[in-house]
Amino acid sequence: MSNPTFGFDTLQIHAGARPDPATGARQTPIYQTTAYVFRDADHAAALFNLQEVGFIYSRLTNPTVAVLQERVATLEGGVGAVCCSSGHAAQIMALFPLMRPGDNVVVSTRLYGGSITQFSHTIKRFGWSATFVDFDDIDAIKAAADDNTKAIFCESISNPGGYLTDIPAVAAVADSLGIPLIVDNTLATPYLCKPIEMGATLVVHSLTKYLTGNGTVTGGVVVDSGNFDWSASDKFPSLSQPEPAYHGLKFHETFGNLAFTFHGIAIGLRDLGMTLNPQAAHYTLMGIETLSLRMQRHVENAEKVAAWLEADPRVDFVTYAGLPSSPYAARKAAIYPKGAGALFTFAVKGGYEACVKLVDNVEIFSHVANLGDTRSLIIHSASTTHRQLSPEQQEAAGAGANVVRLSIGIEDPDDLIRDLDQALAVATS
Ligand SMILES: *Cc1c(COP(=O)(O)O)cnc(C)c1O
């Protein structure tokens, strides 16, 4: 069931799923199996030739994971999706069909700390590189691209400051360059933002965060809009030219707007092996059933806590884009009308020392390196998630030494405020 005329709240429960054909089980079963019996030798050959879609081996496809793929693709407005073992795996899987050694990607300076490390160091092992740009400067994005630029990458709502990216403007740059825009929509979720409707080609998620929603799963997904013409130029030979890793198959010619998705499974999962397991897919499916309800409450609570912090004399500034005083207020109204998410930073008077004392003295907030949980979380990015970065990179990423990051949960907001109040009292005494 993936009728796009159904509302979000219906699709988050039903898209991709149906009662189990074997047993009638109403919930999507966990197909805990590695392999699937072929009907006969011809069936096996047709599956391996990609002439027939079906299940071969769970590194490639699994029925539980397939339901999750269809559900996320539907919620994002894409034609297909490939689940992977983590959000970071999804980022590599998104770039893999696009990039060859010597190619580069233009990325925002405001990203999840692990993504900055992945893009500034680890992808170099593949012969790829990243050019970091302030994505509020649209002209700078275009200026940073060259003939070997194969993608533009940003977060919709960006970690850790909760800043909002002007996706339509960035998508226009990608269009003018003839390259795909990849948006990490982890912090917004498709409930708050649908990058594909604003021109993105691919959307990636860490399923680990809001989509699962309760800190139980590590997973990722790449969603394909199906809107990019891979054959319009010679920039993307893995998709437009005969693929030597699949006996010369031309993915775009053969699979049309599903080329990227098929490539992700037939080459990406087959050879990189960053597969999501069916148990994890089950937990994420359970999480997504309540996504809209949770996101509404996350946003409501974040607005209350951020407003309280902004008015507190012990606090220097609050970055939450959902505050009326935010420089992103107009962009929020135009592009993110349902809310600016629930992740932001605030600066504590007293700098590094006060921040460390604050995280040591909260009671309801958990001091963890995670976000997008039902429970409220706190972290001092400069000494943890963004520790690998230089002070300049930390500042550019919005993770300076004097700021603490909050991921606001769905508890009673008055309790969250009371907790921050008592911890700030200790931290600034
Ligand atoms: C957590 C996160 C990632 C990485 O996801 P993992 O599942 O931890 O690999 C990527 N982008 C954003 C915005 C994140 O919050």
How would you describe the overall organization of this protein?
- The chain has 429 residues and is α/β, with parallel strands linked by helices.
- The chain folds into two domains: 280 residues, Type I PLP-dependent aspartate aminotransferase-like (Major domain) (Aspartate Aminotransferase, domain 2, 3-Layer(aba) Sandwich), CATH 3.40.640; 137 residues, Aspartate Aminotransferase, domain 1 (Alpha-Beta Complex).
- The protein contains 17 helices and 14 strands.
- The chain starts with 7 loop residues before the first helix and ends with a helix.
- Pyridoxal-5'-phosphate binds next to helix 4 and helix 5.
CATH architecture assignment name of the largest domain: 3-Layer(aba) Sandwich
The CATH first-level class of the largest domain comes to Alpha Beta
Compute the CA-based radius of gyration.
Answer: 22 Å
User: Which fold name fills CATH's third level, the topology of the largest domain?
Assistant: Aspartate Aminotransferase, domain 2
Q: Total domains, how many?
A: 2
Structural class: alpha/beta
Low-confidence stretches: none
Termini gap: 57 Å
Helix content: 25-40%
- Give the number of helices: 17
Q: Mean pLDDT score, rounded? A: 95
CATH homologous superfamily grouping of the largest domain: Type I PLP-dependent aspartate aminotransferase-like (Major domain)
Strand order of the largest sheet: 1-9-8-7-4-2-3
Which ligands, by name, code or SMILES, are bound? pyridoxal-5'-phosphate
- Sum up the overall morphology in one term: globular
| Beta-strand segment tally | 14
Strand percent estimate: 5-15%
Profile the largest sheet.
7 strands, mixed
